[in-house]
Design goal:
heterodimer, B: 262 residues, Defensin A-like, Rossmann fold
Chain lengths: 532, 262
């Protein structure tokens, strides 16, 4: 078999894109991100503080099923002291009580201790004990990350697209059956869809769960169970099967923490998605996004961003440039947290109206454009959904066209389309037929992309140029307005959100000068300087 | 049609269309040909294929042909079967309360509203419950509409609010009260385990609990919705797939007129 020469695709532009324009677009996006970052760094959130608790080893629930991280943070917030960060109070209690964070949290849950009213020890000793504990805990995450590397080395990394399928039974044990079947049929990534609206819960449920609507709750125990099951099936198949879950929503950094501890491989992580489609307050979720992406970066997790969703509400032909502009911005936000390009699964989608003449050419142009502009990113490419109907036979062909674009333009994370998309969550057979479709096309068209070039100034080149030009103009507009204003004006996805509206704003807290979060320093040190 | 029939067919009463004994059509009248596909939770084997065939017979298929069978996973097998359905149905005896209205155009609907109600009608739509799909509600409400038909947002005399997908019934009812809605549209595209039925009933319960059910025209739509089902669940009408914004709008303006002026 002829091996694909990746370099060819990455180094030469088939679209004859204006490289200077791409460069300036990046610079603009960088300025947009920095401007927003200045605001982000002034705040913490209740969910970031709960993640600090989890990172320090606090887990479990009280008799009323309230997670201990929530109880600890609530206690500090009630004393109006969260502006200092929860870590200082936990560190202080560790010194005074000579006890572990978990046991201290247990005492809080039983009403035996108020960590905000203890006498304060010497600040240097508090920080020292916190740093030691944090290093010990971060080592656990690093171990998980090297475990992934070892397994990838053992089984070998797959070339070509990763076939990504979802399971969504609501019951983790049923999900496991389906996930294993999907892996055996050829899936490379299993995504466990969350129960509806979990993104709006301001706490993370606990333990193994068997009842969810339209999906299964993201809990640390469910993560662990699924990872174990996929490790088993990886061993059986001699292929590393990746696991995906979603951390967008009100608990973004907490779920990122759980994912890091349980070796998830891919996590959906996108503030804009939460703002636009879940009406989560924009400040809250952008602040959460910063810390959660840092955790993702540290754990070697690939993030997926949600630009593709814009096209489910706005028109895919007319608004393609909003996707590109958002990808530029998301890339810069990701860089600021220390994420590498290889971890940026920037999103886009095949969602044009099938009745458009030459629609396939436009989709091809856009997919190739994303590939060339973000050459190292494992792009996340979403299948047609909006124009799927109950005609499963047509839907199967829509997916075939989508599969062709993926293999021609070398997309990486290929969300598999289902012929029954518009009818129900996939049956076992739906998934098998769809995987068969994708594998057939990927095999038959494997090197087509290397063989073709596009006509100079033809439909495809012109389309890509047009989208890049429009994206550049939009970035200029976003830069002059600022990201917050842009969202208020409904420029993305045609949905407008107010800066002080939406869910979760009560959890946004301005940091005091004494604010302390040991993990930010420790993780940054490694991510930006390569120190241990 | 008749000139295409072979001479022997012309005399065979079995080969004639008889609406009292309607059957599926493959490539000749009354051949009853159908296709079914399903998965069995057993490993593929000759025995499994035989089991699939027996099931097809139990479904009422004569001479079932297992056209395709394949292994899906350890312990699951998939079948595509063709056969002749032995059942028929009396078409002349079927009653559906399809909404049988003369569909008005966008312009006619706007004029109708101006003339009869002298104000804009307030329509709120959403895909409620767990359903994340907006395709149905967008087709009816978004200005872009569907297949060249403008959605309700494009109607001068309609104030349309499209709340999008995964809207809880509680949120939906709250918005209905806030905006003093005349018409509520609920879309259910993808559902599992018949959850849409529960969800739709729950909405009716909520509206009744808030005492606003009477004053509202309540309509649902979606691939699995029929007018019969909608009425059974306590809605005023239900629309299936292929519905245009004009069909829905014609229904609600006429219904509103009937309520106010008769």
């Amino acid at each position: 078999m002829i091996e694909k020469k990746k370099g060819d695709i990455n180094q030469r532009s088939k679209l004859d894109l204006d490289q200077k324009k791409i460069e300036s677009a990046r610079k603009l996006a960088n300025k947009i991100a920095l401007k927003t970052q200045n605001v982000i760094e002034q705040y913490t959130t209740t969910s970031i503080e709960r993640s600090v608790c989890r990172l320090l080893g606090i887990d479990g629930v009280d008799n009323y099923n309230v997670p201990l991280p929530n109880l600890v943070v609530d206690q500090v917030q009630r004393a109006n002291k969260l502006e200092k960060g929860v870590a200082l109070f936990i560190g202080n209690a560790m010194l005074s009580e000579q006890d572990s964070p978990q046991r201290i949290a247990g005492s809080i849950s039983r009403g035996e201790i108020d960590i905000t009213s203890l006498n304060f020890n010497d600040i240097d000793s508090i920080k020292r004990i916190l740093i030691n504990k944090s290093k010990e805990r971060l080592n656990l995450i690093e171990k998980k990350s090297s475990q992934r590397q070892e397994l990838l080395k053992k089984y070998g990394e797959k070339s070509g697209p990763y076939i990504y399928v979802i399971v969504a039974t609501g019951n983790i044990y049923e999900d496991i059956t389906q996930a294993k079947a999907a892996a055996r049929q050829g899936a490379d990534i299993i995504a466990v869809i969350r129960s509806t609206a979990q993104s709006l819960l301001d706490y993370v449920p606990y333990g193994a769960t068997t009842e969810g609507f339209g999906g299964t709750f993201a809990t640390q125990e469910n993560f662990r169970l699924m990872r174990n099951a996929l490790d088993e099936v990886s061993e059986e198949l001699g292929r590393y099967i990746r696991l995906t879950n979603y951390c967008s929503g009100l608990c973004m950094p907490e779920i990122a923490t759980m994912g890091a501890l349980e070796r998830l491989d891919v996590m959906l992580n996108d503030a804009l998605y939460g703002i636009l489609f879940r009406d989560i307050n924009m400040k809250r979720t952008l602040i959460d996004q910063y810390f959660s992406r840092m955790i993702n970066a540290y754990a070697g997790v690939i993030i997926n961003t949600g630009e593709d969703n814009y096209l489910t509400t706005a028109d895919a032909y007319e608004n393609a440039h909003t996707v590109l502009a958002s990808q530029f911005i998301n890339e810069q936000f990701a860089f600021l947290t220390g994420l590498k390009e290889e971890q940026m699964g920037l999103g886009h989608a095949y969602e044009m109206d099938p009745s458009i003449e030459n629609g396939f050419l436009y989709e091809l142009a856009q997919a190739q454009m994303s590939r060339e502009i973000f050459p190292k990113a494992p792009l996340k490419y979403m299948p047609p959904t909006k124009f799927k109907t109950g005609n499963i036979f047509k839907a199967h062909i829509q997916d075939a066209l989508f599969n062709m674009i993926t293999i021609i333009t070398d997309q990486k994370i290929h969300l598999l389309g289902m012929l029954t998309e518009a009818i129900h969550t996939p049956f076992l057979s739906d998934r098998a037929l769809s995987i068969e479709n994708a594998k057939y096309i990927f095999r038959n068209l494997k090197n087509l992309g290397d063989e073709i070039s596009f006509k100079k100034n033809g439909i495809i080149q012109k389309r890509a140029k047009e989208v890049l030009d429009k994206a550049y103009k939009l970035l200029e507009e976003v830069y002059s307005l600022g990201l917050f204003d842009t969202i208020e004006r409904g420029i993305f996805a045609g949905i407008s959100r107010n800066i002080n509206g939406g869910k979760g704003i009560e959890g946004v807290i301005k940091k005091d000068v004494s604010y302390y979060n040991p993990f930010i320093d420790l993780m940054q040190k490694k991510l930006f300087r390569g120190d241990k | 049609m008749t000139q295409n029939l072979k001479p022997q067919d012309r005399e065979d009463p079995e080969k004639k269309l008889d609406l009292t004994k309607l059957k599926p059509y493959g490539d000749s009248m009354n051949d009853g040909k159908v296709q079914v596909s399903f998965t069995l939770p057993v490993k593929i084997s000759l025995k499994a294929i035989e089991a699939a065939k027996y099931l097809a017979v139990k479904m009422g298929l004569r001479d079932p042909l297992v056209a395709h069978s394949q292994d899906l996973d350890n312990g699951f097998s998939f079948f595509i079967i063709y056969g002749e359905l032995k059942h028929n149905i009396d078409y002349t005896n079927i009653n559906v309360s399809a909404i049988d209205l003369e569909i008005m155009s966008l312009k006619e609907i706007n004029n109708f509203i101006k003339k009869k109600f002298k104000r804009k009608l307030i329509v709120i739509g959403a895909s409620t419950g767990t359903d994340a799909h907006t395709v149905g509600i967008d087709a009816i409400m978004n200005i872009k509409g569907y297949a060249g038909h403008y959605g309700l947002e494009g109607y001068e005399m309609i104030k349309a609010y499209n709340l999008g997908a995964q809207v809880s019934n509680e949120e939906f009812v709250k918005k209905a009260i806030e905006e003093n809605a005349d018409i509520l549209l609920v879309s259910q595209t993808v559902t599992e385990k018949n959850i849409h039925v529960q969800n739709l009933t729950h909405l009716v319960d909520l509206l009744e609990a808030e005492n606003i059910r009477e004053g509202i025209i309540l309509i649902c739509g979606g691939a699995r919705i029929s007018n019969n089902l909608a009425k059974e669940l306590g809605f005023d009408a239900g629309f299936g797939s292929g519905t245009s914004p004009e069909m829905v709008a014609t229904f609600f303006v006429k219904e509103m007129d009937r309520r106010l002026n008769s």
